[in-house]
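[Q] Does anyone have a clean structure-token version of this?
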Amino acid sequence: MNLVVALLVFAPAIKSAQTQNLLGADEVLKRLKAAEASYQKLIKEEINSSEDEEFGKYMKFQKKLNNFGDSMNSMPPRTAAAQWIGLLDESLILQAPTYSLIQLIPSPDSWEYIRPAIKARMEKKTSIKGVGLNVFGTFLGNDLNAQAEVIDKSITTLSASKDSLAATAVDSLKQLKLLTLSSGHAQNTKRAVLDAAKNPNAKVNLTAELFTSLGSEKESFLTELFRTSKAPIVYSNYGTLGSIEEMLNKIVVQTAADHKAPHWGAIHNFGNKDAYEAIAKKFNPYKPWPSTAKKSSDSTNGGLVARAYYLYALAKSGAVERAVQGAGDGNILRSVSQFHELLADKNVNEFLRKILIANPTADLWDEYSASSMLIGKFDQVLVATDEVLKRKNLSDDAKIKVLTSRESALLFFDRVSEAVTLMKARHVIESKKNSGYNGYYSAVKRLERIALLLEDKALIAEVQRMLASSQNEEDQPEKPGSLVEREMAVAETSGAELSYSGDSIGAELISIYSEAGRPADVVKVAEAALWESDDIGQLNEMMRYMGEEHQQLTINLAKALNEVGRKEEAHQIALKMIKDKPGEDAGYEFLLSLDSPQVIADLDQMYSADPYEERPLIWKAKLLFDQGKLDEAETVVKQAIAVDPSDGEQHNGRRMYVYTVYADILAKKGDADQAELYRSAVRAIRIAEKADQLLEAGLVKRAIKMYDDALSVFSDAYCIQSRLAIYLAQSGRMDEAVVHYRRAYELMADSFGYVETHCFGCELAFEGETQQQIAEEVFNRIVRERPNKPQIHYLLGYLRETQGRLDEAVTHYKRAVELDSKYLNAWRRLSNIGEGILSPAEIKEISAQLAKIDPSKEDQLARLYSSLETSSFEQAYRLGESLSKKSASIFKLKKNGLVSGEMYGWSSTYSQNRPAQYLTSTGIFRLLSPMIQ
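[A] Here you go.
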């Protein structure tokens, strides 16, 4: 018997011996509990010591907060209000942050008692926090006049303050006044804005809500504002309101001679070249505006940012030399981060090249490389980098940047061996500069990706040696020990470590006992509540931050519960997994494995709660198929495909799973040809996923070949056609790309559902003039042939939005929802770009429709409650009550004493979904928050 066979034969016996030598959950938890008790005693002694009296008071206050949070819902409103006010008084004495206290404010039924109490304590305060709390108290009612009066008084108070942060607070209060007064009333809005504009120490923000409330008076009012404002005017919607941008540019040029302040903040796109030149005739972009420079961190009022936009626009217009001269060392250009739309311009490409040749350390190599790729001239990167690398005395920083760009170009052209040589050379420089440097973009990490993708064993071994030599000894990853060694390491955990890493310790124990096949021990660990909650279901919360590892942890826990006979609890954990991550398959797969008669009803309920998530339908179809109910399964799987035919948000290996299920159904029904068609679609996607990985690593030519291979298996996948077209175009092969762009656009109308998702890279499908011309032709033909298909109107809206023709985009999105009122993504696009274009009544209707049909209501809160018509604290709190009830924990398990962090006054109080958290999501609170922390 050879060694390998012997190991295979005796491995189960070895593992069995290991598990027999485990201490077991009871003993480990006993040791941990003793360690925690010892540590708690030490902490309490420190808290009670006279040397740390203030710390002790603070800890006791935190404990009071926890106790109040646990009991306030059972108190009468007057009692809850009195206790909350008492905690407010104590927090002010201790100078403790009030944010946590506000998140524990009791229901609006108690606010009539809280509001006058805050006023009595804060009305005469002149500190920023005191003023902020006074304003906060006023907003616990719905009296607009009282709110406006308090804001005015607060502005007067803080304007006289010597606090360095007072000017920022005043600016927030002025914005809050706009938010309070506007509510669709143009006259109130105009008065408030013009009043704010009289103060040169202020700053006037032009918001989408302001434009909406002004309606048809926009142009005349803005003209007056720009002529008279003594305060800099800032527009911060960054290209979302196309027609507004054009209007602002025109108004700035027309009124520039009368400007009292430099309105650099109104310039933040590449169409404002004329506006920049008009302002620059009067004001120096490098010189701070004197009035605001004294009290504002925005010392240049956006002058340098505006200049960066101007230089790019100047280069695009053909004045490349002028732009280069004005750019200096090029660092000013980093003020603009969103300029992808310009990278395909040849003049901009030349502009970037000249700056980098003059100053190789400028942080623009990535942009130059991307631009060169987009115009089909990636070979020029090799020319430019070769020229720079020949220079003597080139700094290490410059060498690293230049080598990285040259490597990308070599990989693009499949000159892999040359690129590998450069990566090794760069690794030497990086190792010299920073011992242990192994970040994601480092040479050694890039080498590692290339070696693994190409399955080059020799290179993999070399990279492993490089990684080992570049890491400090303490940075070396720990090798996992045996189960016994791992368990003993946990058992020896100190109380101090347990206090801040109880969740990871519990996770490790669950992993150990799951691997050892000891389900009873797994459950004991879960019940010990090493994490900061007594709710076993809340283990799923860790998945939000720690990925697949903790998803498996939760499945292991549920399996253990199931194995020890606690089947309903396992069932509930599976449901919570799905609730936390409804778009991922692991929870559904586990739910079906429980073989519960309740599963069909569960899946129906999940789909009913969110009719835009197709996963419950897919897994219901799978279950019906397993039960032999083929006709029912086929009906359900078609319903799933209609929701999102593209299924693009799934991880590699899971995309298009719906078609795998459909193929199985069809094969069982005897339709082998159609089943094979769907199987070929899935095979093509898997090939394309491999191509995605090659592409991400920079191996563009190999990726293109693989995309082509995928289409030879199945040619009607729009996402593969689209990706192949994009990267053919970026490789300078536009004639070939056009064929695939056309086919992708033809397939899109039938590949998009209510919530279409773009596969990797497909969101770039409309970028470029040629692409837009082809899309225009294809979509217009389809709309003539099928005028009542909502998807084609949605696609035309998407195209118009990409082109910056937002008024037309809105028209097409409106037509899409007229044809199908359930078209969620069309409603979302309308909501995103409609402000400033549509009337207040239309904006209100869209918000109401989204609130009604959008399953991610929590994601809508910020939008709903920062809008002008729904800014009430009480509205936010009441919706929070509704959502909190729905998301309450399903079941709880008792504590056994090992509750990390309680000695510090921390508990699950702040991690629970409390209604006041929604109150703090409002536009009002976001403006007040910096004042009352």
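[Q] Thanks! Anything notable?
[A] The chain has a mean pLDDT of 79.
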